[in-house]
Design goal:
The complex is a heterodimer. By secondary structure, chain A is mainly α. Helix content of chain A is 74%, strand content 0%. Chain B has one domain: Alpha-Beta Plaits (2-Layer Sandwich). Helix content of chain B is 20%, strand content 19%. In chain B, the strands form 4 sheets. A 4-stranded mixed sheet of chain B has the order 8-1-10-9. In chain B, strands 2-3 form a two-stranded antiparallel ribbon. Chain B has a two-stranded antiparallel sheet with strand order 4-5. Classes of the chains: A mainly alpha, B alpha+beta.
Chain lengths: 382, 238
């Protein structure tokens, strides 16, 4: 298996970039993300060295916090990249080709970044091998792990195919269908929990597919916009504006349905929808969906696409945090001095894990881009 | 029943327990009944449980919910002790990805501390909030290593010292297990023995002679959140 030029950049390009890096000409994003990775890595290591009790703010009342929501966010971004790759291949084949390896690579690296965040939340990550040794087929989490592994494997094969100029229709379809199952499994992991009305119930797998598409597509749109700016080739900007609008509209419909269902129900636990109504409307709908849509309506330029995409990436991250954490707002059993409503604010260590994950994605991608890893596939024809 | 007339209910339940232990494990079905009319909200069960299982801060296997009812001057207090319901159809065992939590052949829902990966999915899935995450906190802060807090609780009849965050049960899900380490030695659960008002009944409901079997065969017995289909094995006498 060829390593250089497929998984890592060509040796010469890498060495010449390294000498530029030492001279301080490596690019601002690389230096910033390296600092972020070092800081985040310190936080990440602290969690393992000091233990959860001293570092994270999750508890029995809020068992899942920022690290889980970061995992969900990156997993969905990864899924969105794959869906974008499929649409790109199907509908914009020639125009999209130079970007395929970049998009799939981003799908891979975000999946890995998400998993790193998840690992820091588990009480005993060293026992993950038990997923294979002692599996429980009734658990949505078990199935999520199965499909997540399949998803990353398919992505890896598809990426190698692109880098080696091999075009396989079967692999392209597999890389579309398996992520659908994977992210539906992730949705069912939350949605199957009947005691948490805020987790959308059976709507969640569908919601995850669309919001995953929206967030992953937004990340791809940033890549497209920057690539278009560098090459002067603007052919993909308009299609990506259209795709992002479709993503925003579909997430809007699902978010709206969910709020209406939540408000209409008077079952125990559903009061959380009434209590979070304004934050859901103002942040979840207006800031996260309507504002980016409006930007795309009135600024159909590279600048507009980058602005709306960055806004979508940030607001979708906040939406994942809101989804995971607000689910625990109303405790299922209250005793002693437990407050009526549970609040949670992440610790500095949890925030550093997010910084580490974001920096990892930015650093690896930008270094690979600068050293020409994706140029090989883009130049060739299938 | 006549021979039991002058006996304390603890003595009766003790005899029931010894009789149940003579049967093969698969033929037993442990259950608990709590008489809410008798419960005075003293929290002796909670503190007894805490000392028995050496539970860390914010982990209560058997909390007691207190509710003020009515309006002045017609007010009163209502108490609801909540152990693990040891459901017959538990949602926690279904979601555990590595079968670290499972139902034994005697119906008891247990956690294998050496298998639990600490994903906390069971905490999210339990509709009773009966599970807690041991994230490794201590009442005595950084001085914990010299205190009772690291000692072996003997839960599930195994050695589990809380000496480091790499060692179970730190990092695990934890919950009430009907003091199975005591029960299998012929002792009643700690909450049953510490209850000041003798409001807690424990025993094998597969034994028609057992006190608990008689107590739960009344029309004023309910199960908490029974409508969820979890088939809890804790009965409330109201």
């Amino acid at each position: 298996m060829q390593i250089y030029g497929v998984f890592v950049p060509e040796k010469e390009r890498l060495l010449s970039y390294f000498s530029l890096f030492k001279q301080g000409k490596g690019g601002l994003i690389v230096y910033l993300s390296l600092i972020g990775l070092i800081l985040g890595g310190t936080g990440f290591a602290s969690i393992f060295i000091l233990g959860h009790g001293h570092t994270i703010n999750t508890s029995s009342l809020v068992p899942w916090g920022l690290q889980i929501s970061t995992y969900v966010y990156f997993a969905l971004v990864s899924g969105g990249c794959i869906f974008t790759n499929f649409i790109g291949n199907m509908f914009f084949h020639e125009k999209y080709k130079p970007l395929a390896s970049r998009v799939i690579f981003m799908g891979l690296i975000t999946a890995i970044a998400g998993f790193a965040s998840l690992a820091s939340e588990l009480g005993h990550v060293e026992r993950m091998y038990l997923f294979m040794v002692s599996p429980n087929p009734t658990s949505p989490m078990f199935w999520m792990s199965v499909w997540y592994t399949a998803d990353i494997s398919i992505l890896l094969v598809e990426y190698v195919n692109i880098q080696r100029h091999v075009h396989s229709k079967a692999m392209l379809y597999a890389s579309f269908i398996i992520p659908i199952i994977t992210y539906c499994s992730l949705g069912s992991l939350f949605g199957a929990v009947g005691t948490m009305p805020y987790y959308y119930s059976s709507l969640l797998p569908i919601y995850f597919l669309f919001s995953g598409f929206l967030s992953g597509n937004a990340l791809c749109a940033v890549i497209v916009a920057l690539h278009s700016k560098t090459t002067g080739n603007m052919r993909l900007v308009k299609p990506f504006i259209r795709l992002q609008k479709i993503g925003l509209a579909s997430v809007f419909v699902l978010t709206f349905c969910r709020i209406i269902i939540g408000l209409a129900s008077n079952l125990s636990g559903y009061e959380v929808f009434r209590e979070t109504f304004f934050q859901n409307v103002i942040f979840g709908i207006v800031c996260a969906l309507i504002v980016p849509f409006t930007i795309l309506m009135y600024r159909r330029t590279i600048g507009g696409l980058i602005l709306s995409s960055l806004l979508v990436l940030f607001t979708q991250f906040m939406a994942r945090l809101d989804l995971v954490v607000e689910g625990f707002r109303v405790p299922v059993f209250r005793a002693y001095d437990m407050p009526e409503r549970i609040s949670y604010f992440p610790s500095i260590f949890e925030m550093l894990v997010v910084l580490a994950s974001v920096s990892l994605v930015a650093l690896v991608y930008v270094v690979c881009e600068k050293t020409g890893l994706f140029e090989i596939a883009g130049k060739e024809t299938h | 029943m006549s021979s039991n007339e002058n006996k304390d209910i603890l003595e009766i339940m003790q005899e029931d327990l010894l009789r149940a232990l003579k049967k093969p494990r698969a033929e037993r079905r442990w259950a608990m009944a709590i008489d809410l009319k008798k419960c005075i909200g003293c929290h002796a069960c909670t503190t007894g449980c805490m000392s028995e299982n050496i539970t860390p801060p914010d982990i209560h296997y058997r909390p007691v919910k207190e509710e003020e009812i009515g309006t002045y001057p017609n007010t009163g207090m209502r108490f609801l002790p909540r152990p693990c319901m040891q459901c017959d159809s538990p949602s926690c065992t279904q979601v555990c990805p590595v079968t670290a939590t499972y139902k034994r052949d005697d119906g008891l829902v247990v956690i294998d501390y050496e298998k639990c990966i600490g994903c906390r999915y069971c905490l999210v899935a339990c509709p009773y909030g009966a599970r807690s995450a041991d994230v490794g906190r201590y009442y005595t802060g950084d001085f914990h290593s010299k205190t009772y807090e690291v000692e072996n609780s003997g839960e599930y009849g195994k050695t589990s010292k809380r000496t480091s965050h790499w060692r179970s049960p730190i990092g695990n899900a934890r919950k009430c297990h009907f003091c199975i380490h005591r029960v299998e030695k012929g002792e009643l659960t700690r909450c049953t023995t510490t209850c000041l008002a003798s409001a807690t009944y424990f025993g094998d409901i597969n034994d028609p002679q057992a006190l608990i079997t008689k107590v739960i065969s009344k029309p004023n017995v309910i199960k908490y959140k029974e409508e969820l289909g979890t088939k809890p094995m804790v009965y409330y006498i109201v």
